[in-house]
Predict the structure.
Amino acid sequence: MPSGGIRGMPGVELSIRLLDSLRPAGGLEDLTLTLPSLGGLGMAALAELPLLRRLEFHASSPDQLDFDASPLTRLLSLELVSVHVSRLPNLRRLVLDGHRGPLDPLSRLGPRLTCLDLHGCALPRSLSGLRALRQLVLDAWMFGPGSNAASLDASLAQLSLLTSLALGYQEGEDDGLAELPPAVSRMACLQRCLFDPSIWPVAGCQPLSAHGSWLRSLCWLGAPPHILFASSAALAAAPTLEWVCILGMPESLDGSEAFWAWAASAPTLRRLSLEVGNEEAQEAPEALLQLLDALLLLLARRPLLVVERIGTGLTEPLRLLDALREEEEG
């Protein structure tokens, strides 16, 4: 696949050079741009790449990367900061990072969009129209005016074909979800699910639902310890669950006996991952010792179980999620 990459300096001169450099490359299919701000002239150059299938932007001035991508009708993958979403009939993957303004109706992207990653974006009202989505990441997302957890649930309710779902930090009046969105419990195709600790307040949250079709095909689950420790009924009701990821250091192991009993006897469980940072562990030495004791007892009962520590922060679990998605697609 013909590919290219461009790095440059700010100013109109860059836009002109960019335009001139791209004109002879009409057959380019893969393009990565690492640039500061761009004017409309530089963006117009992209219209002269009709065969482009993958486009990725990295920019130091995100507000300048706002353009109409409609001429790029063959795009399959698009990663950038800001875009006027127009009709891109072949687009399969869209990644938006840091787009704080309202999004154009995503439903205009067409029925082929199957992968959507939104990082630091407002929750789009048109999310429910993307009924062909298989993979959805909402990280550092925000409720828009007049929106709340019910709005999220209404949007997810239409996404019945999702196989991968990741929910990260959200900004709203409650700064967290009190329970699993009911729409998620009805997702019969769900295989991978990640709930970052930032969306679950330690106090007042409900266990994961042990009912509904969402557990039917679930293979990978990542969630904070206080949620997992309280959700042994849901874990036991997941007949295909192979990999569980504990996201964060538990404050205490009180009340976690049912979780460890499930882990010791679950016939499908093959891997247990822990996302625990050094600073977290140092701040809770007593809980750390309890965790180590629980893991040693678990390994004594299940010596073939893979127990591992992964990197901290949402990025690492998302990387694992991406790897699983690529394995499925490959």
Remarks:
- The longest strand covers residues 30-35.
- Confidence is low (pLDDT under 50) at residues 1-16, 60-66.
